């Protein structure tokens, strides 16, 4: 039974008790002695019609209280004595009769109105008693209430008719006296109403206590289903802003300046983006109802270690991607769901990585710890061994001086650029037999700091980036599977002969820009092993004065960069030899050299199918272009 049914039953019970009390009062007064109204009638035998009026007016709803009957009895005897003694008041008996008749009718009307108002007020509450609900099958007793109200209407009509039949208008003096008497009576009635209201409030409070106890019992019997539709939780206390975007199970409230998590009424949501706000706390139960949530982004907020309790994320059993980057966390949050496949902790202030940091994350595939304030002292040697399933690990932008030990054997992508790494030992990467992409750029590596067999175990490596280090030559013993080698912005002066001959199926891209090769740095046999596989070659900004002779040997070269050198001329067959008429070259950069474009051989670039792929301008010095 609902709250409204309980309220109605309480009002019915209170109203029935009130009416019964009035009837008992009237019934108990009759046997104990003569009616007070009859005494007054006997005291004034010469007043015609007063007995009938008072008798007709006497009833269950209009019977005065015992105290009022005693006062009326005393007044009757006093007036009778005054009549016998020729009283000093000298009041006319006819006026006394009219006044008493009027006051009696007015009092009865006032009492009926009070009872009726009380009944309507209680009926408006509509609060049933919890005890009656248990015994009557949770039904509402609206018929009894309507019957009582109908009786009150009938009694009111009868009293009004009696007043109209017996009342009469009098002078202004009598009206003033009546006003004074009405004020006194109003005060008495107000006191009575206040007492009734206090009693009703006490009964209502008792009913509410019983109702709360019953609801508690019902909740214990039923199964609790977590819901955040109507419950206001700490840190979860505002409805979804209109500026949030909702489409196909995704909710995005990115960059709205939120300080608390909004209430999510759609429990079927699978993606929730709350990044770039000012959220500083997430209540333990704030997200527990979102059992279907797969992607959660809380990046770039104000979250600290105490913002996420041990049970805040545990119940998100479907969660696969979690971003906490750009916060103020000093450790990996505890009790992350085991379903998690991708975790982003970039741009935090982690002070330690221990073996317990990733406990239970058996399905974790990608871990990002970029710019997380890590160094060799904060990363435990066995911290990463628990990440047995991790295939992608990003440690860029930290202060590591060596490759961390205990790298997962399933690792395929390792980003460790922008650190302070000074060496690569033989054992550093020996366990990474499945590694395909390695980024060691922007470190402090030198030629002698890389072990000769550092890459031996990397039999699956396809991409190696060693740019922005201090290397003077191409590293030896590169993995046979290597396809892309980026070694820009070093100090390389020479490419040893046959450096790439052992590669199978061979390099596809070689980026050597911004080094110091010069004309002697690239020998005729330096690029042997790449002539059929290479599609991209970058030799820009290397101090070249001529186009290397080995360029004409490439069969599938598509992009060639020779810009930013000191090349003064391009020989007729340097780029497009007659035997290579089917050249695939589509992009050639020769800008920022010392070429005199108007003196170039007419067929120097005949192998380019599209002239738009040739870039000759600008050049250093004064040049003229002829077509």
How does the major sheet shape up?
A: 17 strands, mixed
Name the shape in a single word: elongated
**Helix fraction bin:** 25-40%
Q: Can you give the mean pLDDT?
A: 77
Please count the beta strands (DSSP E, at least 2 residues each): 17
User: Whole-number radius of gyration?
Assistant: 50 Å
Total helical elements:
8
Could you name the ranges where pLDDT drops below 50 across 5 or more consecutive residues? 26-72, 80-86, 124-142, 218-237, 623-627
Describe the structure in your own words:
Residues 55-92, 156-241 are annotated as: Disordered. One of its GO terms (cellular component) is extracellular matrix. The chain is an alpha/beta fold and 627 residues long. Among the domains are: 3-196, no CATH class; 492-627, Ribonuclease Inhibitor (Leucine-rich repeat, LRR (right-handed beta-alpha superhelix), Alpha-Beta Horseshoe). The protein has 8 helices and 17 strands. The chain has a 17-stranded mixed sheet, with no helix packed on it. The longest helix is centred in the N-terminal third of the chain and has 50 residues, at 172-221. Mean pLDDT is 77; it is low at 26-72, 80-86, 124-142, 218-237 and 623-627.
Give a quick precis of the structure.
The chain has 627 residues and is an alpha/beta fold. The chain is built from 8 helices and 17 strands. It has helices spanning 3-29, 36-43, 50-57, 66-85, 93-125, 130-135, 142-166, 172-221; strands at 245-247, 250-252, 271-273, 295-297, 321-323, 342-344, 366-368, 392-394, 413-415, 437-439, 463-465, 484-486, 509-511, 536-538, 559-561, 587-589, 614-615.
């Amino acid at each position: 039974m609902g709250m409204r049914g309980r309220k109605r039953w309480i009002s019915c019970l209170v109203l029935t008790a009130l009416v019964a009390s009035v009837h008992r009062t009237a019934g108990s007064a009759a046997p104990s002695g003569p009616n007070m109204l009859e005494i007054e009638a006997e005291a004034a035998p010469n007043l015609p019609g007063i007995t009938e009026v008072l008798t007709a007016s006497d009833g269950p709803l209009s019977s005065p209280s015992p105290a009022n009957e005693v006062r009326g009895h005393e007044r009757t005897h006093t007036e009778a004595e005054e009549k016998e003694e020729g009283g000093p008041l000298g009041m006319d008996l006819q006026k006394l009769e009219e006044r008493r008749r009027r006051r009696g009718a007015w009092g009865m009307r006032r009492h009926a109105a009070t009872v009726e108002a009380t009944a309507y007020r209680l009926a408006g509450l509509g609060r049933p008693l919890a005890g009656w609900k248990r015994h009557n099958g949770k039904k509402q007793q609206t018929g009894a209430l309507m019957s009582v109200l109908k009786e009150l209407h009938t009694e009111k009509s009868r009293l009004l008719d009696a007043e109209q039949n017996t009342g009469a208008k009098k002078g202004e003096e009598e009206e003033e006296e009546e006003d004074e008497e009405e004020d006194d009576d109003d005060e008495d009635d107000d006191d009575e109403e206040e007492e009734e209201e206090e009693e009703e409030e006490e009964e209502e409070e008792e009913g509410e206590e019983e109702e709360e106890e019953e609801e508690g019992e019902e909740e214990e019997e039923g199964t609790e289903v977590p819901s955040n539709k109507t419950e206001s939780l700490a840190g979860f206390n505002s409805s979804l802003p209109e500026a949030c975007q909702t489409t196909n199970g995704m909710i995005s409230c990115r960059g709205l300046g939120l300080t608390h998590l909004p209430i999510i009424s759609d429990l079927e949501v699978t993606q929730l983006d709350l990044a770039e706000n000012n959220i500083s706390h997430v209540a333990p139960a704030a997200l527990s109802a979102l059992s279907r949530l797969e992607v959660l982004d809380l990046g770039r907020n104000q979250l600290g270690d105490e913002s996420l309790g041990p049970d805040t994320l545990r119940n998100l059993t479907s969660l696969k991607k979690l971003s906490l980057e750009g916060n103020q966390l000093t450790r990996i949050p505890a009790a992350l769901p085991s379903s998690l496949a991708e975790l982003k902790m970039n741009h935090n202030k982690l002070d330690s990585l221990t073996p317990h940091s990733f406990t239970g994350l058996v399905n974790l595939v990608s871990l990002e710890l970029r710019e997380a304030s890590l160094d060799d002292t904060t990363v435990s040697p066995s911290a990463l061994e628990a990440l047995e399933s991790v295939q992608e690990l990003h440690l860029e932008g930290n202060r590591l001086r060596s490759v961390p030990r205990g790298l997962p054997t399933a690792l395929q992508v390792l980003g460790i650029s922008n650190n302070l790494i000074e060496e690569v030992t033989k054992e550093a990467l020996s366990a990474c037999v499945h590694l395909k992409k390695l980024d060691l750029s922007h470190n402090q590596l030198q030629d002698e700091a890389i072990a000769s067999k550092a890459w031996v175990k990397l039999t699956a490596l396809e991409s190696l980036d060693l740019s922005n280090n201090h290397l003077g030559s191409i590293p030896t013993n590169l993995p046979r599977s290597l396809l892309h080698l980026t070694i820009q912005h070093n100090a390389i002066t020479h490419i040893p002969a046959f450096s790439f001959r052992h590669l199978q199926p061979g390099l596809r891209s070689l980026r050597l820009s911004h080094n110091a090769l010069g004309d002697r740095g690239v020998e005729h046999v330096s690029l042997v092993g790449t002539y059929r596989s290479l599609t991209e070659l970058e030799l820009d900004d290397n101090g070249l004065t001529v186009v290397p002779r080995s360029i004409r040997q490439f069969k599938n070269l598509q992009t060639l960069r020779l810009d930013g050198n000191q090349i003064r001329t391009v020989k007729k067959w340097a780029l497009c030899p007659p035997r290579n008429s089917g050249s695939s070259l589509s992009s050639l950069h020769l800008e920022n050299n010392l070429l005199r474009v108007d003196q170039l051989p007419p067929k120097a670039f005949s192998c380019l199918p599209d002239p738009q792929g040739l870039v000759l301008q600008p050049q250093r010095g004064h040049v003229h272009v002829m077509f």
